[in-house]
Model the fold of this input.
Amino acid sequence: MLIRKFQKEDIAQVAGVWLSTNISAHDFVPAQYWQSHFDTVKEQLLKSEIYVCEDGGDILGFVGMSSDYIAGLFVSGEAQSQGIGRRLLDFVKGRKEELRLNVYQKNKRAIHFYLREGFEIRREGLDENTGEKECEMIWCRK
Done:
């Protein structure tokens, strides 16, 4: 497995992981919401700081960054629970002094993952796009 910078040739696989993972991890948000944003997200991905985890040409997951903000950490369904999310997170931790992110409160699996990885809940808020409650989480290098 290799973690590397995103290349434009990765867009189909990365966008596919984004869509399928959002639909499965956020079953409390209608799938149509994610599908309706698919083309816009593909355009944004091409302009973003992204690192992919690749194995034999297959992209198993990726992390999208905006400065010290994790815009998203996604691992394909068949590759989950194999340490890929932790590897991607460790990769960006090695490059930043502090990391922030937002996660839906109903996404208990993600919250537990980030707490286990040293993040703390800073505050709670509301995602105005979906109407779902979310937590802002932060990690600082010690």
Remarks:
- The chain has a mean pLDDT of 93.
